[in-house]
Batch of 3 targets.
Target 1
Amino acid sequence: MRRTILCVFISLYFIFSGYTQSEYTYSVLVTGRGGTGLNGIKVWLKEKNSGQKIIKYTNYLGKAVFKVPKGYWSLNLPGLPNYDEVELKGNEFGSRSISIPYYKKKIEDETRILELRPATSFSEFIQDNIKITMPVADSCFVVIKLHDLNKRPVKNISVSLIGVDYGIILKTETNSSGKANFYVPKGVRYAIDVDGMENFAFTQKLRHAGVQTVTLEYQPTFITENNRNDTITQVITEPVKPTSARTLAEIFVLNEYGDPLPQESVYLMNIATNEMYLASTDDNGKANILLPNGYKYLLHFTYKKDVDVLNLTTIKGTNTLRYVVKYIPDPKLEHPENYIPGPGELYLEEFENFITKQFPDPKEKKVGVFLNWSNNKINAKSKEAVLEIGFATTSNPSFIQNKTQVNVAFVIDMSGSMAGYNRIESLKESMLKFIDKLALADNVSIILFNEESYLVIPLQPKGDGKELKMVISDIEAGGFTNIYKGMVMGYEELQKHFNQNKINKLILLSDGYGETEPRIVIEKSKEYNSMGLGLSAIGVGDDYNYALLSLLAEESNGLMTHAGRSEDIYPAFEKQLSSLIYPIGREAKLEIYYNKKIEFDQLYGFQVINKENNKATIKIGDLYMGMNNLALAHFILNKPDPTIENYPVKIVLSYYDPETQKRIEIPHDVKLEWEDQTGDIKLMVNNQQKKLYAIAVMNQSIKVMAEAFAAGNVEKARNALIRAREQVKDIYPKAEDEDILELAAKMEDYAVSIDNFIRNKSNY
């Protein structure tokens, strides 16, 4: 049977948007022996993309008539799957009839063989040079005769008879006459394999002694293939034709405008074997590939993966499959470098946002420090240790003797994106509450910005707050985002009324990216910071310039807070308020004194500003009331032995106290404990610490990746992600936590982009 299958896809994704009625009639006649119509036979059409079925049963004449809708349909009968195909690309008119000889007993026998064969254990026998003679009573001869499309005998082709009832496989090759002779036990039906193609045909049931001849059309495959690293290219001479073992796949590739794409690589991957067939389109956008039947193939292009599946599992006979596809490259594959963020574009949810642990409120002092090894037990096999460093500040306002007065400029993003997700309403509600908590003498200014900036309220005493509240209630969102203009206007207003006895702070809130280059914004902000003006920031949502806002806050010892949802805006304002009017300490820093046995490696949660002479200095920033924070310090253990207990790590938290005008130091020593056991000791035993450490490792690796890739060190960028993947796997062999999985997925996306970038460069 020769068939041409036409598959037309006009885009990379076939969107099945519902069928519309057509007037195309498809009549199926099912006949038994003698051509008599068979009544009550189930016949169905199945749409190959959607799976929709249209089921009919033959009438007393053996007929089933279908009104065929738009789609790509296969005709099926019990035991005869995918017997025929019908494709309608629109509301087409016409008719077609097909007659199917259907021998129920024969089909049942063949179906039984197909079902039993995979589970049967076989003994193999070679039957060469079998001569046709008089068979004995319980045996007979089977002659398999092969000829090509031109009726010429096909010689030297392997042929096998498979007897599932006897558990035997008989093998031979066709002779110069195209014949393969077998001498077999009678009484059963045999499957016939030809040239490695299983179940190519079946014998009749061998009821009598004698000779049964089965004549089969077989078109051999003559082709040269080159296999390099499981990628197969074919040397095809025109005119190319399908063979019995292989379907000719004619792939027509068009660009987004429907024009042919010449010299475009086409990849078809055998899903079962992972072998990749590679061809290139000609000047007409056509690529020819001879694909072995019996498999499914996944279609790829250089810059588009998993385009579609070509299913040849049920193909019989010689077939040509014509497939038309529009190829629009995936920009993530074509230009992966555009999807690897630079250091100034990176958004990562801060480590501190995952901290759920609450440290005790200090009783008799403003600040408490809490140290805890993730596992304080070590032995000779231990290579590393992680120290949890927590600190908390008092939450009791009465502990603070003098509330600080403030000059505060609110610089608020009112661009159009703030209108979504109830953000602008939550912002107004949060600001109204914030204003209520300020003192009457506190000075307040409000600057709104979109693509322009607007001085809505000049810096002035809060007073009864009525004017401020009226302005806040009238805020409406619209326009684009220009952080630079709003920030400069806010700083200028603070500078005009600067008071060294007050806190002079700008609070910047935004949910987007500005138009000005981040470097320029940061440099301008630093100019005002040097004049004694500070900045704190609130980032709203998940699509704001986190890197810019956090750097602006960091440069001025300000506070950076994240409000992922609209309901998080007020808690973010409250945090800012506490840092403004209830300062515990200024310019806090953490010092870690380590030694030759326990060597400091890295800190997660805060920035290390210096590391030398067995001391690491970490910048903490300002401390405010009700603060609860945590950092994880990673140490390398050098040849640990029992003496390690004599080498404590010293932790010193220090800050400037504005009330006493003195620098306060809080020192602590912490030791590891030696264990004599010889087995592996887990690095971490607490699940919350595991999660924080895994998130910290992944965040850090993504930051290193972004910096290294921007600097042109692709190998370092890739290795950072690989190392983090290994570390997280050690901590979480079977991670199920959603936060871990989400960040790991982001890390894998970056790794894929880097691999694509490396591959693209190697192809040029």
Target 2
Amino acid sequence: MRSRIIFAVLLFLIGTGARAQIYDPVTWEFGYEKTGNNQFELIFTATIEKGSHIYSIDIPEGGPIPTSFSFDTVPSYTLTGKPFEVTRPREMFDEAFGFRIKTFSDTAEFRQKITSESEAFTVNGTVNFMSCNNTTCSPPKDVEFSINIGGKEGSRVSASSGVTYAEVPMQKGGLLRFFLISLLAGFAGILTPCVFPMIPMTVAFFSQGSENRTRSIIKAAIFGLSIVLIFSLLGIIVSLTSAGAGFANTLSTNWIPNLLFFILFVVFAISFFGAFEIVLPNKWVTGADSRVDRGGLIASFFMGLTTVIVSFSCTGPIIGVLLVAAASGDVLRPTIGMFGFGLAFALPFTVFALFPSVMSRLPRSGGWLNSVKVVLGFIMLAFSLKFLMTIDSVYSLKILSRDVYLAIWIVLFSLLGFYLMGKIKFAHDNDLKHIGVFRLFLIIAVFSFVVYLIPGLFGAPLTGLSALLPSSRSSGFSLVRPQIQNMPAQAPGFEIVPLSSQCSEPRFYDIFDMPLGLTGYFDFKQGLECSKEKGKPVLLDFKGHACANCKVMEAKVWSNPEVLRRLRDDFVIISLYVDDRTQLPENEWFTSSLDGKVKKTIGKVNEDLEITRFRTNALPLYVITDNEGNPLNTPMPTNLNINEYSKWLDEGAAAYRSKSLN
């Protein structure tokens, strides 16, 4: 008896907390404005919680659910035209869908013009929309409205109150990663032929005051801080002129800046190959150098300025690459990037100025410095293709396919390997009499990378480079092709499991398909029956046609061979689309106990199932259950950590085996 009471109390607590788990970040306000004689504009205002967004009215086919409006047909008013957007949407390239998508954050206003000869009337209708953040998407939601014209100027209607899931701290990790990359770029700048030889000259300048050790340390510190300050100021200028996120979105999607960046990268690469040098005006160098001759503490600053200017012929392309990457992201990235670059660049100069005796341990200048430039040139040339890839993907040109992209990379890195072996020489290179140990390991690394790339031509996913390569859907050929009739083409490189391996023909298989050659079901009850027959646990996959995070999880986590093996061998997968609008037979309709509405479509039935059983509407959501649909461990939302996801799968399978034995 006591256990039943405790269970009832737990159910009550879970029920009262259910609403806090529903992802519902949008509230709506409806009103109107009289614009002329018998003319009105209906006003629809969405307030969106920070970190979330909704989609524009204008969304390409095959993308997420657009915001749309429907109106009851009554004789008291006439619609004039279609609903239109007042707030300007942000347009960005969505990797999951492969094209540009317009979204609204914070707030969005839509309007619809109407005409009416009545003095007082009511407009009823529904707004349909979908909301997402970095980790979660909601199923499409309908919000009904009723606007009284001639009376009260609109009324606020809340789509729901609730707490969104915590955002993944993507930005912080991204900035830290970019800072570390900038540090490495600064150290790379030191190892160039117009910078490395300057170190002894700089040390000699500070050694002049060696009789006063304290003053020498102060001068060296000012010198180092000056270099960091100069580079940081350059980053601050870019940050202040980048016009925020809108500018970043333009840079990342528009063909003009992407084409310019491609040309810049190619020019920088050609410069590093020795065709020409990028230099600043001589009068800048002369002016800064003349201030150094005056001595004193201020001379340390101008010594730093002279070092920056003179080194620009080698560091300029590296700085340009960093600023291009920085301007395409957060507004702080240029400042953080240039601070990191300046810090790494100044560190060796400052350390050697403080401790001149360390100079004796430095390697001598030589042909290896030019080799550093050439290696950087090949890398810049390879990464320049990313900008062409963006143009090709965003505008659906279908010219730079995955195969062509990989072929160019294979050629470039093969040429880099031959260059390191001394088989290719540029004008400023010395004869390579022998190959040192470091160069040998570098050659091995380069050719190993080339070998790694080659299977990508034949369908291998190359998940480690997925962010830098075109989508596998653009691949022109693959050694592995689907052989099963009536089954859609799957991702290249994965085995197709015959339908005969399943308990019965999956219901709705003509509407939906499983990713990566997997088999499964699209109906909850049918999947449970098969799990009983096979004696396997169930993996419920709540997903959506328009769910970007669902596509990312499948591409980056499910595609992992170990995860894929577990999915294929250890579970009966039931994929439940919550945004599908296919209407079910009338005998399968039911009235929801949650909102009292009749659920008629596949999507609404699955959405109701997710909220009723698991108290959330997050997409994607993965749940491991027994043969009755009872959870065996904690449900898993978006998680790109393959090890954690694999561990979670193993935990659920072990819980099923343990329960079966009992």
Target 3
Amino acid sequence: MIYHKWSVIGFMLWLRYSLGCFRPWRSLNSIYARHLESPGTKAYSRQEALIMFADFTHVEISTPLGHADLLNSAVGQRHRGLVLSLVRLLWPRWFIRTFFPKRGLSMLITAYK
């Protein structure tokens, strides 16, 4: 598993740490590196993952929604607060499941040599 760059969580982090801080030019790479898990965390697009696995004969990639994408579970301590508590109540889970079912944070990869 590696992190999926174009995920619902990536969009939420961009809203909070880029647009919400009046810095819409900040890249997703920068936001993931500073605000997801430990410093320097990276996330990859499907194309970038396929390039990393170019030497394999068969590669399957899936990016299913998980509990974090749907805000169904507790978040890390540094993300807790009143705003996130309100967002969790209003988070459009049915909309995300319906229209963005392949935009999960976890990119699951099966590859054969």
